[in-house]
Amino acid sequence: MSFTTEYLESKVLTATPHQLHLMVIDGAIRYAIAGESALLAGDFARAEAQLVRSNQCVAELIAGLKHPQYPKLVDRLRSVFVFVQRALSEGDRRHDPRRVADALSVLRLHRNSWIALGKKLAEEAAAAMPQEAESGFSWAS
């Protein structure tokens, strides 16, 4: 096993659910960008391979939507991700980089929203910390 593989495996195994979701989003974006570039270059075999990988990442995002407390939100997110999957598939099938660009716009918006959510949750968690933490005491020091 190479150092890079060990590092990536360690990163995944120690990531929070929030970080894992972000890694999958980043993968979907990275592969979609590569697919879009391949389409623009006329390399349809490479485009297909990259767009299939992006679509697999989006399928993982859909599979992770299982929160019973917010069924309407989950249904809406599922619909958004299904749109992305269709756009990626149609972009591949029709050799249309504009469809891939549509999918990328949605994925980037979701990524930005996910990062903002993470920051908000971190702020709320910090605000909820006990008074002792504010006095300078820390188990980590």
What order do the helices and strands come in, and which of them pair?
Blueprint: H1 3-14, H2 17-41, H3 44-63, H4 71-94, H5 97-127, H6 131-134
Report on this structure:
With 141 residues, this protein is an all-alpha fold. The protein has a single domain (17-117), classed as Four Helix Bundle (Hemerythrin (Met), subunit A) (Up-down Bundle). It has 6 helices and no strands. The longest helix has 31 residues, at 97-127. It is globular and about 60 Å long. The protein starts with a helix and ends in a 7-residue tail after the last helix. The model has no long low-confidence stretch (mean pLDDT 88).
Mean residue pLDDT: 88
The first-level CATH class name? Mainly Alpha
Task: Indicate the percent of residues in helices.
Answer: over 70%
CATH architecture verdict: Up-down Bundle
Number of domains: 1
| Unreliable stretches covering 5 or more consecutive residues | none
Structural class: mainly alpha
Oligomer: single chain
Q: Would you count the extended β strands for me? A: 0
Rg estimate, integer Å: 19 Å
Report strand %: under 5%
N to C succession of SSEs: HHHHHH
